[in-house]
Every structure is written in C-alpha cells, then in structure tokens.
Amino acid sequence: MLSGHLQEKSGKYYAVLNCKHRDGKRFPKWVATELPVKKGNKRAAERLLDEFRGSYNVYGELTDGEETDIAILEPIAETQPEIQETVEQAQEDAGILFAEYMLSWLSDIEIDVDPVTYAGYCDSVEGVVVPYFKEKGIKLHELTARDLKDFYKSERKGNPEKKKKPKKGTTVVRYHANIHTALEEAVTHGLVARNVAHKMRPVTEKFVGSFYLVEEALDLIRVAHGHKLELAVLFGLFYGLRRSEVVGLKWQNFDLVNDTFTIAHTVTCFQSKGKKVRYAKDKTKNQSSMRSLPLIPLIKEMLLALKEQQKENQRVFAEYYNKEYLGYVYVDEIGELIKPDYISSMFSVLLKKNGLRHIRFHDTRHSCASLLLRHGISMKEIQAWLGHSDYSTTANLYAHLDVETSKVHSAQRLSAGLFGLMNPPQDGGQPIEKHREEAVYQNV
User: Fold this and answer.
1) pLDDT score at 393
2) pLDDT digits (tens, 9 = 90+) for 24-82
3) How far apart are CA 351 and CA 233, in angstroms?
4) DSSP 80-111
5) Which of 38, 111, 134, 249 could pair covalently with 329 via S-S, beta carbons 3.0-4.6 A apart?
6) Crossing angle for the helix pair 230-239 and 340-353, to the nearest 10 degrees
7) What letter would DSSP give residue 338?
8) What pLDDT does residue 318 have?
C-alpha cells in the first residue's frame, strides 16, 4: 500500500500520496477528500486517506482497489523492467546512509532557499551532522529518536580529545531544524514511515540580550562622534537596525523632505566553499522587517553632511572613487561599501579603547528596545519599530525588561503610599520626588 499523509489546504483536508513517475522520479499526488477542516472531520479524512492509499498504484493511477505497492509488484518485476527499476530504486533508497541522505537533501534544496540561508545549512549539515552520522554508519531507515538525542548530547558536551568545544543549545537547535526538515521530505517521498525528529527539539538556554542604560548609550554616542562607526551606532541605538540593514541603507530610501526612510535593502556576507561572499538583496529578513521610520533631526543633519562629503570625495578621488556603490549611504572615503564584519569587529575595538562596557553590535538593537520600553513604549509598538514578524518574538526577548519596569513602578507607588504618610510634603508637592532619566537623544 502507498504511504501518504493528510494535508490542510484552503480549509479542506487533502490526501497526499507518495507516488512515482515512470522514470522513477517521485511526486506527491493530491486527492481531495472534500471534507472541511473542522472538529470531528479529521478521523473521517484519515479513513479516506487509507482508502486512497489502497486505490492508487505507485504511479498515482487508480487501480479499482487493487493494492500494487512495491512488495506486490516484486513477483512480476521480471516481465516489467520499469517496475523492476522502481523496486530496485526503493530498495536502494531504503539502504542509504543517513549521512548520505542529508547531503542529497542539501543538494536538492539549493535552488529553493536564500544563498545566505543555504550557506548556513551547509555549515551545519556538511560540517557537523554528516561527519557524526557517517562515523556511526546509521542508515536512513534505521535512524531512531535515541540516535538523535545522543547526537544532540554529544554536541552540547563537546569532546576535549577531538578538540571539540561544547556548543550552545541554540546552535544545536539549528542542527535539529535541518534534520527535522530533511526527514519531513523523507516521509513525503516514502523513504521512511515517520519523522523520528518530531518532538525531539533540544532544550535551549533562555536568551537575555545585553543592553546599555541611558548613560552608557550617551557615552557611546559621544565616543562614536566623527568615527567611521558613527552612522552604525546611531542607527543601531535609535532605530534598532541590524548590521545588514545599516550597510544596506540606500539614498533612494530616504525622503529628506518628509523626514522618513524605508528599510528595504540588506547586505550580508557569508562563507561559500572557503570564500567570503557579499550578498546584497532588495529584501529584508522577513516581510515585517521592511518598515518605514521617522527621520529625527539629529540623524537627518548627519546624513545631509554625509551626502555633501560623499560628493566632495567623488570630486577629489575622481577616477579612483569606486562607482559601484554610488547609491549606498554607508561607504568610505573612496566609495567602498563598509563591510558588515567591519562593524562588528571595530565596534568591540571602539568600546575597549574608550573604556565602555563590552556588548555586541547587535546589542545596540536590544538597547534600543530597552530604552523604548523604559520610556513607556508598548511591546506592540516596539515590535513594529524593530520589525519583528511575530509579537511573541518581541515579548520573549524583552518580557524581563517589562517585568523589571513594572516592579520599579510598583516600588515607587508603594513607597509613596507608605513613607509619604510618614513624611508629608511641606509645599503641597509629591511626598517623594520622581526621578526622570536623561533623554538619550537631546536633539530629538
């Protein structure tokens, strides 16, 4: 009998059968159950799925209820070469090593995913998953949840003898995500009966981002003034831009008349086959990341000065000025685009040189969220400001800050309620003076 599964589409259940063309290539055959997705219908849809699995052969053709799966086809394979080929292919697939299957999956998805994403997949699969399971010699159909659990544990613990450092849970989760997705494909293609990675997601540490307080943020702005990182620091602290978004800023996305700008272009770097590749795209991390924000006077003034300076640099350096990046905001004196890695590395140098507490450049984004929250901006507004695709992302990252702010307010009210009665004000004012934080951007 064919393998298959239920799939929801346009509010209805569909049976998706794992079939093959005559040339041996697999394809999913969708068969409508005509049952709407609602409570009580799933069991009926599953019964229809079982009927369809017995009503179609491996080629997706109706057989009037005759089962024609691989096991039944084997006795007549001698007289039908194409069926023999199908049987042999299925047997070969069943015996493939899990490591080899992961490499095959990696090759299949190359054209379907973003180059940066694919580079990350290659690092995980080729660099970690494949070596581990190749050494174990585990076949695809033999893979168990226990095997995966042992792999995750091994990566978390590390191996001093092989000079392997322990890895964070977030890193191991990336390996799991690749394995889970690849096994879903294996189930779809009928190579395995179920996804053993399901519900096996490794436990991760709760992330708490570092961030600067008001005074630290002001100090950072002061020391960055006139430095090549000034633009990155301002856009990181005030707007919470990622470094790929800072480097991707283009003049065409700034409306200097209406004082707004749009984040619609990013530039990233990644390793591919031992070489560093710069990848620019008119696309952000997700749809919500493509956002428009108001341009404050302080930053507008800096941008206008920068635009004039770039015109002067073009005049001075003439033919030596790099014309390739004329549309970009963040270029150096000779027109070379500032590299994302430069921002990260020089940011650490800038902090150390000026005696400031170490944080990552990405933590300026967390600092932005912290400052917004502490000045009464709601989580929903922060989500839109930072360009998070999901409210839960914002809430999970900054819920602890919200709790701390709430505690401070509670303490102030309780203090005023209790101790204010013991020390009543003489001038009719508040019993306890409210302390206001200094505004981060005095020119806003």
Assistant:
1) 64
2) 777 888 888 888 888 778 888 888 888 888 788 888 887 754 333 333 333 333 434 44
3) 11
4) -HHHHHHHHHHHHHHT-BHHHHHHHHHHHHGG
5) 249
6) 90
7) P
8) 94
pTM for this model (two decimals): 0.62
Q: What residues contact 106, with CB distance under 8 A and at least 6 apart?
A: 121, 122, 125, 126
Q: What is the CATH number of domain 214-386?
A: 1.10.443.10
| Whole-number pLDDT of residue 423 | 54
Per-residue tokens: 207: 């992330």
CA distance 250 to 266: 10
Residue type, 9: K
Q: Residue 22 and residue 4: Cα distance in Å, rounded?
A: 19
- Cα–Cα distance for residue pair 50/275, rounded to 1 Å: 50
- Angle, vertex CA 76, rays to CA 73 and CA 80, nearest 5: 100
Q: Which two tokens stand for residue 162?
A: 């092989």
DSSP 209-249: -----HHHHHHHHHHHTTSTTHHHHHHHHHH---HHHHHT-
- The 8-class DSSP code of residue 389 comes to S
Q: Each residue of 275-333: pLDDT tens digit? A: 778 888 887 666 667 889 999 999 999 999 999 999 999 999 999 999 999 999 999 99
* pLDDT attached to residue 126: 93
Cα–Cα distances (Å) from 170 to 71, 129, 184, 206, in that order, read 43, 15, 21, 9
Sketch the domain layout of the chain as residue ranges. 4-80, 98-188, 214-386
> Residue 257 in contact with residue 236, Cβ under 8 Å?
no
